[in-house]
Amino acid sequence: VTLLLTGVADRGGAAIDPAGLDPANLLAVKAEGRSVARAQGGVPGLHGARFLAQSQPHILLEAASTNFEDAEPGWTYAREALDRGADLVLASKGALVLHYAALTETAQKRRRDLRFAATVGAPLPVLEMADRVLIGVEITGFEGVLNATTNQVLTSMSGGASYEEGVSEAQALGIAETDPTLDVDGWDAAAKAAIVANAILGASLNLRDVRREGIRQVSSQALREARLAGETIKLIARAVRRDGTVVASVAPERRPLADVLGALRGDQMGVVFFTEPLGRVATTVEHTGGIPTALTVLRDVINVARARGWTSAGE
Ligand SMILES: NC(=O)c1ccc[n+]([C@@H]2O[C@H](COP(=O)([O-])OP(=O)(O)OC[C@H]3O[C@@H](n4cnc5c(N)ncnc54)[C@H](OP(=O)(O)O)[C@@H]3O)[C@@H](O)[C@H]2O)c1
Fold first, then answer.
1. Which of 66, 118, 209, 283 could form a disulfide with 205 if both were Cys (CB 3.0 to 4.6 A apart)?
2. What CA–CA distance (Å, rounded) separates 96 from 191?
3. What pTM did the predictor assign?
4. Model confidence pLDDT, tens digit, residues 142-185
């Protein structure tokens, strides 16, 4: 499949070229801390519907900052792209946790493809495992380590660091944001639990439906005690179907060090599906972060192209 980048937007505006933008030029401009509006094809202040009208994408990649308050700007871009007949690949989670039903119904009504593998622990193949590998198998729930920042902090703390040192280390490694609140208070993991539960368990959970506890209360002492017992503490995101309803939660839990999730260190992530009749089916990844996330978005884009028959091999 040949990809043509016809438009790209940031806070300052957009760059547009129907013949295809040069990614190297865009990267160079962003590396200097400037807006893409200053790159070749740049248009300061160009946003939203006008941006979509000028760039005319077949696929919109929505990767603006995640916003759990009102899901913007992603929600408006997503709706407008679907209205314009574009397929949608999301990296940001806001629209998925605040407007899941409306988003999926609109995509279905417009017969557009909607993919969001990067939102749930990229590059972990959570949705693809459920959709492709476990097809024909009953999935009754899942649990996972789906947030890299908290796993890095807990890993540092189990090595003897304090909570504050753990956070600083995660920031120095480029894993944690300057403001790690959404991670350490469990919001990011709760969003992922809701998205996966909605996508694979047929739930209709909102972010607030997920019982949530972060890692601020986990002490170095508790981690030391766990270690003496051959265990550790992990922030576990879980959703299970019980009596016809889906219950989701995020909380720190003691896990055996030898367990699939207990063994995950640093920014590694993993998920375990509870299935009938296969039992527990797990997948883990060793490297997360920016490039693996970009590769996950690319994976979705290629799968959209396959589904549309745009690849030379088709599907
Ligand atoms: N980084 C990861 O490892 C990872 C993993 C999985 C999912 N994600 C998700 O992927 C998305 C992007 O991640 P990131 O780390 O690159 O986030 P980020 O550092 O917050 O950058 C987001 C980009 O969105 C742009 N943006 C923000 N508000 C905008 C607006 N109103 N209009 C147009 N552009 C706007 C920013 O523009 P400026 O450059 O002008 O500020 C920036 O380029 C986020 O939603 C994140 O949750 C990230």
1. 209
2. 8
3. 0.96
4. 999 999 999 999 999 999 999 999 999 999 999 988 889 999 99
